[in-house]
């Protein structure tokens, strides 16, 4: 449902148009809930609120931040955390590849693409692919940056909200805030898992992860990902071959 | 000196094991900007690995909870997650319904059975 191509007079109005699109989209509600949960998680594991804000700006991927906070907080080695974060982030690569051709025009310099590349994450990516075709080429980068700043500002703000709510609420209510992260990630991951291979990977991860943790296996997150993901992928290939 | 290091250490950790391992894949996308099909085999595999890792983290957060969530008994946490997921399925795959029902069951169970 691409909007008709609109004429935008300047880069700054394209930027603010992007901010407005972000704040009026449904993703802003999702980000509020997600980052309230992550804020509570960061508080629970003993991180500073500014550390969380910086992680939102620098990492800008909610799954990677949840992995980072929970693994560091549970005392995993730095090597293990880095491996788990990087395995969760490979999906960003094809997203950037799909986004950049929409932003690149005849006069686009590499450095103009640095910010949109860093801003690439699920919410911004889905909305950019939907809205950019309706925007004139020379305003797309400004619009995309505005969209991302709108989302990131929301995420940083509600990270603080979740952090200080968790600090001030009685344990039962703080517990329900902490439950936001696993609950919302469980259903949103299930929702994103359209193909059989993704659904199988979800079920295998849910099963293998706790078993390896219970057995105190080293690098449990890495083995959960590589093991569960590869088994799901192998089953998918086998089904394709048998068809 | 040691106090300064201790103060900055969490931020150094954030950059080393959070920012860099995550950002490198965006940089790879910028450099190798040639078409990589969403259905190519390596993309399918990497998505499955990412999904399995995230699922493992979700399960750990529910089963091996810490802090305030640990004051709510394990059976209540598991029941809340199951009810939330069923509500998501029943309510035409609504993420909001899943989270709302899961949270409601957790709150009720926690109110009745918290340590």
What descriptors fit this protein?
heterodimer; A: 243 residues; mainly alpha; B: 115 residues; 0% strand
Describe the secondary structure blueprint for this structure.
The complex is a heterodimer of chains A (243) and B (115).
Chain A: H1 11-23, H2 27-44, H3 49-58, H4 62-73, H5 78-89, H6 92-103, H7 114-119, H8 122-131, H9 140-168, H10 171-192, H11 196-214, H12 220-242
Chain B: H1 2-31, H2 41-63, H3 74-90, H4 95-113
Briefly summarize what is shown.
Chain A has 243 residues and is mostly helical. Chain A contains twelve helices and no strands.
Largest sheet of chain B: none
The secondary-structure class of chain A comes to mainly alpha
Average pLDDT rating of chain A = 92
User: What's the helix count of chain A?
Assistant: 12
Q: Provide the gyration radius of chain B in Å.
A: 20 Å
Helix content of chain A: over 70%
The whole-number mean of residue pLDDT values of chain B reads 91
Q: Beta-strand percentage of chain B?
A: under 5%
Q: What's the total count of β strands of chain A? A: 0
H-E order of chain B: HHHH
Q: What is the chains' assembly state?
A: heterodimer
First and last CA, distance of chain A: 34 Å
Low-confidence stretches of chain A: none
* Cα end-to-end separation of chain B: 43 Å
